[in-house]
Amino acid sequence: MKRFERILIQLAVVHFILLVAAQFLLEIPSFKLYTNKSIYYEGVIKSDKQPTLETIDR
To answer: Which InterPro entries does the annotation name (predicted)?
Structure first.
């Protein structure tokens, strides 16, 4: 049982180190642009403004 607990603690420490490293890398703006693909789908990078359509006639 001691060996199993030691392995679990080691896995938790490695997981924490990887979590901190990933959070640090995501704070770098140039790295974030290449890793986060959702900004391409949402159109955040595009600088041209599309005309907005009004759906409710007043």
So the answer is: DUF5359
What is the C-alpha end-to-end distance of the chain, expressed in Å? Answer: 72
Task: Write out pLDDT tens, residues 21-45.
Answer: 988 887 887 777 666 666 666 655 6
What value does the CA radius of gyration of the chain take, rounded to a whole number of Å? Answer: 22
The domain spans of the chain are 2-42
> Strand, helix or coil at 28?
coil
Give the pTM: 0.53
Distance from C-alpha of 24 to C-alpha of 35, rounded to nearest angstrom: 13
Return the percent helix, strand and coil in the chain, to nearest 5.
Answer: 65, 0, 35
